[in-house]
Design a protein that fits this description.
Length: about 625
């Protein structure tokens, strides 16, 4: 059983369908009445079919004419239908009223199908909106209380039970669970989350209860930003659609002028009868109207946007879906884009009586007191079984010093260690030089005035980066470059690993901007992929700016045109394929629409089609290109 709210929503959403159904019913009854010479009943039901089926089109057409002083296809259809009915009443050939009614009916059916197509693409937004609950279980005075999401404040603590949706973005302060993030990031597998991890509104909690602290307003949560951006994408017309809409206004005037000329010229020049001339002019208004042309673009692009959102690719508007398919060059930032932005210990060398695990634990005893990313990587690699150092002091940009087991320990770069140790063993220097040549950072560890080992640390390259670069080249991307603020040696190492030939290193944000401009001069359509605040100017300058959704800064997310929600680089190639498919389908739709118009016009002038056939051909082509655009909903 449908609830009252569900019933009203069904009626509201299906009003165009209901109008088409009742129009068809009244038209059929009117045709039956006319076929048995019940003229009075026919003239009762047929006008009802006209009003029910044509009300929305007449209202939209008149609104456009009065407010914008422009003609559109809705008004042309209504004029053609009323003209056919008037001609039928004038000549007493009442079947012409049926012809006009068929025009209204098929136009109404076409509108219902287009509405269905649009609702299919808008379903993704409704799905996003339904992902977040209306209330959250907030701890007030140590007791849980259900409060509306809108009343949550930064610093509030909330409880999420197993199987519940996360109500807003937050940081886990106690608890452990696996979260299904597929609806937000497109990741198919649940992600393990524990204390200190960020969780996103709309993700589904697994087996464990979580205690969260709200660290941003609910309106700023990732899901809310996604909803706003997708809504914006569906309301903004891309350049191609804007061109078609401008073309429609001019074309509609041409069609009206052509229809008027067709009414007067044939009787004067070729001696056609007025009845035949008017009928042909009305048929011309129908078959020449650019309905199919208008439907050639937006259903396709909206389907592509919906498809992308389902796969964790957020297009901010249809224009970017068009552009990404035309990209000829791509520039990548390094840290956080081609790499994860998380440092990792890649190698350890020890000397004398010390083993490699012991070198790590001694270094970790000091680094545990530091907030530096290098220190965190060392602590993570060392595992457990060490005690924190005492009297620890960090020297910014150089290293850290303290006492471990009553012995002074130094951990830092080469220049820092040389201040306290006279010489370093040759085998360690050779190893360190080899690691640095590969783009790694070497941290030296000294104890009791002697170097006891060294640790090689580097940013972890995304595992999918290599295959993604290969896939982009197969897609025909002509130039792939890396632009980074990191040093040349590290940048070259990462570029060589992932398969990028051209590297621009040690760049400031304005330098990255200039590189993008240079690429645009040579390749025109250039994409930039980045995640940091320093990438924002380049993202804005690029033809298509692409940001990493999870790792990306808020500035990068707001500046970019496309967001990869799951931080999966392989989705970039998927986005390009979607763009190219959309471009191909739009071109196919335009050819189909123009082809139908030309064929129907020729058939009309040769006298081989009547009004119903013209209507079926015209509206059939509109439905065909709309359904063609929906092909992009498939992965």
């Amino acid at each position: 059983m449908l609830s009252y709210r569900g019933l009203t929503r069904f009626i509201a959403e299906g009003s165009d369908t209901l109008a088409a159904v009742f129009c068809g019913m009244f038209l059929f009854v009117g045709w039956l009445a006319l076929s048995v010479d019940w003229l009075g009943w026919a003239l009762l039901f047929l006008p009802a079919a006209y009003v029910i089926g044509g009300y929305d089109s007449a209202r939209e057409g008149l609104t456009t004419l009065i407010k914008e002083q422009e003609l559109d296809v809705d008004l042309l259809m209504i004029v053609a239908a009323l003209g056919a009915a008037g001609l039928g009443l004038w000549r007493g050939e009442y079947y012409l009223i049926i012809d006009g009614g068929i025009l209204i009916l098929i136009f109404a059916i076409s509108g219902a199908l287009e509405g269905y197509a649009m609702r299919r693409t808008e379903k993704s937004i409704r799905g996003l909106m339904s992902l977040t609950p209306d209330t959250a279980r907030v701890l007030l005075g140590g007791e849980p209380e259900m409060l509306p999401i809108t009343q949550l404040k930064v610093g509030d603590e909330i409880i999420v039970k197993p199987g519940e949706l996360i109500p807003t973005d937050g940081i886990i302060i106690s608890g452990y669970s696996s979260l299904n993030q597929a609806a937000i990031t497109g990741e198919s597998l649940p992600i393990e989350k524990s204390v200190g991890d960020e969780v996103f509104a709309g993700t589904l909690n697994g087996f464990g209860a979580l205690h969260l602290r709200v660290h941003k307003p609910p309106s700023s949560s990732l899901i809310q930003r996604v909803i706003r951006l997708v809504e914006q994408a569906q309301t903004e017309a891309p350049p191609s659609q804007q061109f078609i809409e401008q073309f429609e206004r001019i074309y509609a005037r041409v069609v009206v002028v052509g229809g008027v000329l067709l009414v007067f010229l044939p009787p004067l020049i070729w001696g056609w009868s007025w009845e035949v001339t008017i009928y042909r002019a009305l048929t011309f208004l129908v078959v020449a109207s650019p309905c199919a042309l208008m439907a050639a673009i937006m259903p396709t692009l909206l389907s592509g946007i919906a498809n992308g959102a389902r796969q964790g690719i957020l297009f901010k508007n249809g224009a970017q879906l068009e552009k990404i398919g035309k990209v000829r060059a791509i520039a990548f930032d390094k840290t956080g884009t081609l790499t994860t932005g998380n440092l990792q210990v890649y190698g350890v060398i020890s000397r004398g009586e010390y083993s490699e695990p012991e070198v790590l634990k001694i270094a970790a005893a000091l680094e545990s007191c530091s907030e530096h990313p290098i220190g965190k990587a060392i602590v993570e690699a060392a595992g457990t079984g060490w005690e924190c150092g005492v009297d620890v002091q960090a020297i910014p940009g150089q290293g850290i010093v303290g006492f471990v087991n009553h012995q002074q320990v130094f951990v830092g770069n080469t220049a820092f260690i040389r201040e306290y140790v006279d010489q370093s063993p040759e085998e360690l220097q050779t190893w360190a030089q080899s690691q640095e040549n590969q783009g790694k950072t070497v941290v030296w560890v000294a104890q009791a005035q002697q170097i006891i080992g060294a640790i090689a640390i580097a940013d972890l390259i995304r595992p999918e980066a290599v295959s993604m670069i290969t896939r982009l080249r197969k897609l025909g991307v002509e130039q792939i470059v890396m632009i980074t603020g990191d040093n040349q040696r590290t940048a070259d190492s990462v570029a060589q690993t992932v398969g990028i030939d051209q590297v621009y290193a040690e760049l400031l944000p304005e330098d990255k901007l200039n590189v993008i401009r240079q690429l645009q001069q040579e390749y025109q359509t250039v994409a930039m992929v980045g995640d940091g605040i320093n990438d924002a100017p380049a993202l804005a300058q690029a033809s298509v700016g692409i940001a990493m959704g999870i790792a990306g800064s808020d500035v990068a997310l707001e500046t970019a045109d496309i967001v990869l929600m799951a931080d999966k680089l392989e989705k970039l190639a998927t986005a390009i394929e979607l763009g190219r498919r959309s471009h191909s389908i739009v071109k196919q739709n335009i050819v189909i629409a123009l082809g139908f118009i030309i064929l129907l016009l020729i058939g009309n002038f040769l006298g081989n089609i009547n009004l119903p056939i013209g209507v079926i051909g015209h509206e059939g082509s509109t439905v065909l290109v709309t359904l063609s655009g929906l092909r992009l909903l498939r992965n």
